[in-house]
Amino acid sequence: MACPPVDNPQKAVEKYRVGKKPAALKGTMDRNAKYRRFLSRDSIPIDAVRIRIIEEDTRVVAEVKWPENELTDKGDYFYATHIPLSFERALDVKENYDFSEIIIVIDDDRMWKSEWGELVTSS
Description:
Elements: H1 9-18, E1 34-38, E2 48-56, E3 59-66, E4 75-76, H2 83-96, E5 101-105, E6 118-121
Parallel strand pairs: 1-5, 1-6, 2-5
Antiparallel strand pairs: 2-3, 3-4
């Protein structure tokens, strides 16, 4: 069965590749956002997407992980990446799989930058 003709193939490919993203995903970080801070040794909430900020080869990068819930299996993005992309990925997972929040795991708060948002102590 042949596919129907497409007026603009490049636009069709972009639409397929991008898919439906939440309106909040615009490739920029929200410096007004607040994130709860956890340490590596802390118990992590079971309904949160976790961004773990680490230093790797003298660069500050982040890993994104999430637990299993009724909409998805537990997962991660396989490797640490630069901070803005990590936040975008975490927000995408949170919105698409109905997690309650994004939390930050960071042992050295000197790695945190204010343009990423406000880091608040977990209660």
